[in-house]
């Protein structure tokens, strides 16, 4: 009797071991395998089953703030691929997007169908806060650069006007005619004011080259006026003297009749 009991227990233990082994094998088979796509995205590996029926695209409703979009996408696509489609509609880059379905944010490598996305499912799109802050800072930076460009252009226009006057003075002096020294001094002062304006413009990047170029123009104009000032001082002013011709009065030939 004891032997039979032990034998039965042995079979029972053997059966339990087989059940445990089968469960372990099943767990091993359920381990998710991941694969790297050419674009660098890590996604869940799907089994190659040719018997899987071809499914139609899903129509997904996407809410982005007050805007609404309807995107047609393959149910076997990933959320990362959905983000790429949304880029064309929203202008947000995939890295700036956060997709939420059923109150949970989804990762780029997760598949739509495996996350329960069905036809007419609703997905909420929000802009990543960090990306939004970066976008805002970039907009402020661009606005600052544009404002600086306008200031530099204004200075450039004033320099153009002063350069025309300098050219006229240069031609006058070359023709041997003296100009008023005050005119030259005033132009130098006006150029120095433009130089101060340039110094007060805070700028970085490509606009620095434009700012430096206008600064060089101011310096060249001032140097030209300094040379013209010296040349102008060497010119002797032309003194115009007028000689008036004098005429003697004609002799009196009139005989006046005298009356008593």
Automatic annotation (TrEMBL):
Ranges in a coiled coil: 145-179
Gene Ontology biological process terms in this record: protein stabilization
Cellular component, GO, one term: cytoplasm
Protein name per its UniProtKB record: Bag family molecular chaperone regulator 3
Lineage of the species this protein comes from: Eukaryota, Viridiplantae, Streptophyta, Embryophyta, Tracheophyta
InterPro entries listed in its UniProt record: BAG_chaperone_regulator, BAG_dom_sf, BAG_domain, Ubiquitin-like_dom, Ubiquitin-like_domsf
Comp. bias regions, Basic residues: 1-10
Highest taxon in the source lineage: Eukaryota
Residues covered by region (Disordered): 1-24
Gene Ontology MF terms: adenyl-nucleotide exchange factor activity; protein-folding chaperone binding
Residue ranges constituting the Ubiquitin-like domain according to the UniProt record: 56-126
Pfam families: BAG, ubiquitin
Organism: Nicotiana attenuata
